[in-house]
Amino acid sequence: MAGAHLDSWVAGDGAADNGAGSAVVVEAARILSSLGTRPRRTIRFALWSGEEQGLLGSYDYVARHLATRPPTGDAELDTAGPYFSSRAAFPITPLPGCRDLKVYLNLGNGSGKVRGLYAEGNVAAVPVLKGWLAPYASLGAGAVVAKPTGSTDHVVMVKLGLPAYQFIQDPLDYESTVHHSNADTFDHLRPDDLRQAAAVMAGVLLSAANSEKTVPGNVVPGRADDSDPFRYKDPSAD
Ligand SMILES: [Zn+2]
């Protein structure tokens, strides 16, 4: 599965955040379709809504198809929405087929060329992701780093222990100038970089869909227990 968010901040056009990622997702789908590929597994594409308001689209998708969380019982948190309440909403109950999600790839950091994938702290995933990216090393996209990344839709799945990863991209002017500003306009997009990203996304999706290998997921997090240093740390407990 691959996705990006279709909504944008109020200033500018939202071209880089995240029209760019959305265009790449649609182009990756077009590439795979036009080549007549017949992958062994279903490849699903998502354009999320409400990302800027708190990852609302991806949280809703997860609740419908992957896993549910109960209300926290804290009225303020529950009213604030899942972006806030999920820190304290346990237990997580996986839905049937939740673990059938082989990999989710997110593109959410502007128009820059894809350089590889963040493994989101899951070092066991690094060799598998590197293998799927290997054919694209010559396009400059072969890197896998363990670093976790935040702030966008893959996080919703990472929080369930699912194999969800974000692409590393050239930063360009995204954070410094364009992001959430009135400069987020079409002229900041780089067509050649977006074409490269679409080719890499399509190729990695096809490799994953046809691969015998699975990305090792993380455990389903439970409620924080400060007396056990090895349990998942719940930031809301601070
Ligand atoms: Zn944004």
Write the layout of secondary structure elements.
Elements: E1 2-5, H1 15-34, E2 45-48, H2 56-65, E3 67-68, H3 75-80, H4 82-85, E4 93-94, E5 104-106, E6 114-118, H5 126-133, E7 143-145, H6 154-158, E8 164-169, H7 174-178, H8 191-210
Parallel strand pairs: 1-2, 1-5, 5-8, 6-7
Antiparallel strand pairs: 3-4, 6-8
Helix pairs in contact: 1-8
Bound molecules: zinc ion.
Zinc ion binds at residues 9, 17, 52, 180.
What does this structure look like?
With 238 residues, the chain is an alpha/beta fold. It has one domain: 3-Layer(aba) Sandwich (Aminopeptidase). Helices cover 33% and strands 12% of the residues. The chain has eight helices and eight strands; from the N terminus they run βαβαβααβββαβαβαα. A six-stranded mixed sheet has the order 2-1-5-8-6-7. Strands 3-4 form a two-stranded antiparallel sheet. α1 links the parallel β1 and β2. The mean pLDDT is 93.
Could you give a short description of this structure?
The chain is α/β, with parallel strands linked by helices and 238 residues long. It has 8 helices and 8 strands; from the N terminus they run βαβαβααβββαβαβαα. The protein is 33% helix and 12% strand.
